[in-house]
Amino acid sequence: MSTYEAGQYDVIVVGAGHAGVEAAYAAAKRGAKTLMLTMNLDMIAFMPCNPSIGGPAKGIVVREIDALGGLMGKVIDKTYIQMRMLNTGKGPAVRALRAQADKPLYIQEMKKALEQESNITLRQGMVEKLVIEDGKCQGVITETKALYRAKSVIITTGTFMRGRVIIGDISYESGPNNQRASVKLAENLEELGFELVRFKTGTPPRVINHSIDYSKTEIQPGDENPQHFSYETTEAITDQIPCWLTYTNENTHNIINENLGLSAMYSGMIKGTGPRYCPSIEDKIVRFHDKPRHQIFLEPEGRNTEEVYVQGLSTSLPEYVQREILRSIPGLEEAEIMRAGYAIEYDAVVPTQLWPTLEVKNVEGVFTAGQINGTSGYEEAAGQGIMAGINAAAKALNKDTLILDRSQAYIGVLIDDLVTKGTNEPYRLLTSRAEYRLLLRHDNADLRLTDIGYKLGLISEERYQRFEEKKRLIEEEKQRLQEIRLKPTEQLQSLMEQIGGTRLKDGILAYDLLKRPEVTYDIIDQVCPPELDLADDVKEQVEIQIKYQGYIVKSNQQVDRMKKMENKLIPDNIDYDAISGIATEAREKLKKVRPLSVAQASRIAGVNPADVSILLVYIEQGNVAKVSNE
Amino acid sequence: MEKDTIAAISTPIGEGAIAIVRLSGEEAVSIVNPLFDGKDLTNVDSHTIHYGKLLDPVTSEMVEEVMVTVMKGPKTFTKEDVIEINCHGGLASVNRLLEIVLSRGARLAEPGEFTKRAFLNGRIDLSQAEAVMDLIRAKTDKAMNIALKQLDGKLSKLVNQLRQSLIETVAHVEVNIDYPEYDDVEEMSHQLLREKTEEVYQEVERLLSMARQGKILREGIATAIIGRPNVGKSSLLNALVHETKAIVTDIPGTTRDVIEEYVNIRGIPLRLVDTAGIRETEDIVEKIGVERSRKVLKESDLILLVLNYGETLSDEDRQLFEAIKGLEYIVIVNKTDLPQALDIDEVKRLAGNQKVITTALIEDKGIDQLEDAIAETFFAGDIDSGDLTYVSNVRHIQLLQQTMKALEDAKGAIDAGMPIDLVQIDVTRAWELLGEIVGDTVQDSLIDQLFSQFCLGK
Ligand SMILES: Cc1cc2nc3c(=O)[nH]c(=O)nc-3n(C[C@H](O)[C@H](O)[C@H](O)COP(=O)(O)OP(=O)(O)OC[C@H]3O[C@@H](n4cnc5c(N)ncnc54)[C@H](O)[C@@H]3O)c2cc1C
User: Fold this and answer.
1) Which of residues 290-329 of A touch B (CB under 8 A)?
2) ipTM for the complex shown
3) CATH architecture, domain defined by B6-109
4) Domain of A613: which CATH number?
5) Domain count, chain A
6) Domain around A588
7) What positions does the entry give for (6S)-5-formyl-5,6,7,8-tetrahydrofolate binding (chain B) (predicted)?
8) What is the reported pTM?
9) Minimal Cα distance from A518: which residue of B?
């Protein structure tokens, strides 16, 4: 095979899905000359499944990406057809934004953002091979024999590797949505010693808008005053489009049960492991057979398309059965399928092969990010993408790497879970995976991460100034409220009664008043407003920080304890076989994961506290030697 | 270095007349000082010993007379500030002291942790690193063994039930959070969460206050030996003491006027109490009458009534039976080496369903049966109590107390109208703490629960 020299770059990103675009953009912003190679330039940041971005945990990731200077938040803010804040009745830690996306528009906007970034070169091409010399990455070779050189390569090929689409008893090699599968690259990775695993996911059928009778469904409108993901967005989209809700019924379930044998899931055609959190409809009927009905959401795929996504009906039953199922559902009696639902199996990289920087341990200079690492979801992919981009650029340009810890970001939780514990099903973020979720809020993503983004060069000077100003205002207002003692005037007492609180017995600090659960910042605005009116996000921050201070302090104490162990680094050349006291299972796990810190070691399943203690004693030997020589 | 302050009993129980509770860490002095009625320990020279009283932080009553040694870092074993509280070696007292310092913010030391700290702080030299690691391994394995043995017990069964109830509740909250549009489950309300929390709270409370086995292990079984003169009470005492190398505590120079003796029967501590200050219990009934002696004897967990095989049942014996009616006792028919005069059938009738055993203490006969009877009475045979050490029990008690605290916090937060997802932090904490008792702290089980309990997904 003779190749031609096609160019020299700092970073090459393979794939332009949600991981790829963030990776390329972050690397470029850090100053790396970046090549983005992808199979089809019209499918940049394509959403193969649901037309929505955000939701619990995931929405917070989008904000984190934005705080670090990434693209996802900005682009969805420009292209949503509907925006909703979820969990508004709950505490601040679990509030989450979710947008319905205009899919084709999202692609266009994302492509434009990349095209406008001067450090990025966009090129269509199928990568078949990594060029590795002496265990180090040198570049990639494409199908058309182009050899591109770079010190860092990020692979973000999603569900394409040895992809296989399955509909009923029909199955063929394919990436999502009938794109080409990426077979050679999978083979090459295997040759290079990558451990791969077979996963599976699926998507429901799409139907055409005018075949739906919406009068039989319930409307699901967006929020009246939509909030946004990006801290840079200033304008809201006013003409939002609703979604619709309908339900399956007994009839639907009978059809599914009768045809269960034809489902690829049950006929044994599918070998890959699917995610529990997005089961196919046949899965739901089998596992929860006494549920009389399941929700079905009808979600438009965009403004300039008639296609409607049928959420809740992911399936790998034959096409004709899909039609029968649809037509058993109120509102869909006449539904015309535009695309059938399908299941897809693909190869993923076992993520414990990665360092927390997302660099592959055994092949220096290769990074992987996104669904290829065993995750599922656009946001999970994008979150890894930006981190891989930051670290791949660091590698190429000899700059600092970045690892976010579990108390800093959901992105930190996600990556730590992957590289430390691995996963045996496609991994999705859930709020319950974050032990410090009170600290990892949607509202404070900027306070957590903007400094980092700025230092990396991903946040503009102008935005950083605005951020600093916001921080100052929050601190000043908190200080001010500490200094105001409110008398129990009639005005205040009747206000308290109005909001269903108890009357005050005595004077009270404004600060302490705000601590009461029923008191919002509105009350402050009424009884002791600041000189200059504050922005809503400042008020929100002041209220949350004061009201939940007790919990926040508790969480911070936990974090401090963890940090101590996080700071105890394990030398890279440690020889676990030389530590006799460690239990066998723990030793095997440690050798595989090669944790960077004692804290990371302690999170590996199978490594017990005693093993951690022994490890600690072992690695402290060097320091001890110094001390005792004094 | 690690900042928190650890505590443990540093003398093996039963091996010395003096027991020591040792604390190490930054807060060692500040934890003990407020509990200590004596010199101001923050203001004493390092490496000095002080006599005083240790007070219960809640009631401010004296718990124990103690000698406190203050040693300031770095010239200590761990190079940290170290406090040693010396008390007479009674199991009850030393455990109580440990519990008190734990309740004031010290953490129960892990196996081998003092040594580990000594090492990490550079007190032990490099060549001993290997030994330190071995020690941690060995101590942990031993503790694990004990923990595993206990896992068969009713405690673990109950704890697992409570955990299941908590995790179902938490999963319910989680599903509301992660799947806000999922219409299948009712929204977890404050009221519902309060009910669920309260249920578990009460169980934990019950476990803590009523768990007889736990109490026994902590404080010993208060045991009175009664019987007419010359039936063999002293031989019984001596036999028990001899058999178990019990500690006979009699600390000179203290003002204690009550003398208690501990013996260890199959790992169960018996506290031989002096009833009502009347050492010679043979004349108890005579001295204070049946009614009052009943009251006094009621304070014991176990009464050993000794009878003489060689004599017929006397009125005094019958009065004793009367005095202990309805209480937990074991009848010991001693001196079977003599020709029989006692009507055993009558004794059995009087004893009802309490155990009657025969011994010839002079010939060392029957002690085993007595020990069996005691172990059976208190552990109904379902715990291998021989391996129970009080340390793991203090640990359990501490964890249960922390669980209660977490649930209390949760209840408080509910009452204050805090959002459910914040309340849930404390509920989850309670679940984790209970998990530490049964040795199961895998976080993924929540996610497993979520997906098996609810039908979720797009
Ligand atoms: C059928 C289906 C159903 C799904 N359902 C859900 C769901 O319900 N919920 C959910 O959260 N997520 C779901 N997902 C997952 C979600 O779509 C992905 O997690 C997300 O898109 C992954 O982003 P990525 O950047 O890792 O990969 P992708 O978005 O798949 O992007 C991969 C990119 O790599 C390119 N590429 C591949 N191979 C090569 C090569 N050799 N050379 C050059 N370029 C290459 C592709 O052209 C593409 O641009 C589903 C995905 C599919 C396919």
Assistant:
1) 291, 294-295, 297, 311-312, 314
2) 0.81
3) 2-Layer Sandwich (3.30)
4) 1.10.150.570
5) 4
6) 568-621
7) 22, 84, 123, 458
8) 0.80
9) B417
